[in-house]
UniProtKB/TrEMBL annotation:
Record Pfam families: TPR_16, TPR_2
Name this protein carries in UniProt: Uncharacterized protein
InterPro entries xrefs: Pilus_4_PilW, SRFR1-like, TPR-like_helical_dom_sf, TPR_2, TPR_rpt
Lineage of the organism: Bacteria, Pseudomonadati, Pseudomonadota, Betaproteobacteria, Nitrosomonadales
TPR repeats: 77-110
This protein's UniProt keywords: Repeat, TPR repeat
GO biological process: negative regulation of DNA-templated transcription
Stored PROSITE patterns: PROKAR_LIPOPROTEIN (PS51257), TPR (PS50005)
Length: 261
């Protein structure tokens, strides 16, 4: 799974892995020109390296690799797409838009670009525009990972305060990919918020089976267990918090005393 960064500000919508696509390849137009073919291979290699550095949070090097890829082959859509993602993380929004726009001008129906650009503009507050791009990505029958678009749309709708619609999108995501962590966590949180505690328990349990939970996930799990009066589950989650996050704000919220050094 690609490492994807989709942490939202202002509302706790965490663990959103799966939002964006960092593919370094695309369908090629056959060419008999060995020079062009070699340029494309170099561009693919640089874009692949950019994706690896992006995954590790080394954005300066990732950006340099995208520039090398574009220098080798300015028509390589995946390189512009990757550059948009890197610039988004660097908060170079004007240049990020230019990179995504360039990618879409070359391939207007590229679902990976639509998904990533849609997520970018949603995070920057342009919910309607972002959701339209995400709708187009998710509706593409040739898009190999439509669950990413559904997850992105669900998180975008949460940001816009459209919780019921967000849940619909997130359920669509897990129907395609049952182990999609970001969707499972957010479904647990949405279910808890609307008082559907059995649904919340189901989603957080599914999440816990396949993830190493962070403090936010354990906090939510404790709240759900308490709402369901499940003392055994509650104590299990509390023990994990005491062991792994004894001094966190989340532990303090559930009544765990800070550790003494």
């Amino acid at each position: 799974m690609n490492f994807l960064r989709c942490v939202l500000a202002g509302v706790t919508i965490t663990i959103a892995a799966g939002c964006v696509s960092t593919s370094s390849s695309e369908t090629r137009t056959p060419t008999n020109d060995p020079v062009l073919a070699d340029a494309r291979r170099r561009a693919e290699a640089h874009t692949s390296l950019a994706a690896e550095y992006y995954a590790r949070g080394i954005y300066g090097v990732a950006l340099s690799e995208t520039k090398l890829a574009i220098k080798d082959d300015p028509s390589f859509v995946a390189a512009w797409n990757m550059q948009g993602l890197v610039l988004m993380e660097l908060r170079e929004d004007t240049m990020a838009r230019e990179a995504f726009d360039r990618a879409l001008r070359m391939d207007p129906n590229n679902s990976e670009v639509l998904n990533n650009y849609g997520w970018f503009v949603c995070v920057r507050g342009e919910h309607a525009r972002g959701l339209e791009m995400l709708r187009r990505a998710g509706a593409d029958p040739l898009y190999p990972t439509p669950e990413k678009a559904y997850l992105s749309a669900g998180l975008c709708m949460r940001r816009a305060g459209r919780s019921a619609e967000a849940e619909t999108q997130l359920r669509a995501a897990v129907s395609i990919r049952p182990d999609l962590l970001g969707a499972l966590f957010n479904l647990a949180e949405l279910s808890y918020e609307r008082g559907a505690m059995k649904d919340a328990e189901n989603f957080i349990t599914r999440y816990m089976r396949i993830a190493s939970p962070n403090a936010d996930a354990l906090l939510l799990a404790v709240k759900i267990a308490r709402a369901n009066n499940d003392k055994i589950a509650e104590e299990s989650y509390l023990q994990q918090m005491r062991r792994r996050f004894p001094d966190s704000a989340q532990s303090k919220e559930v009544g765990i005393a800070p550790s003494r050094n």
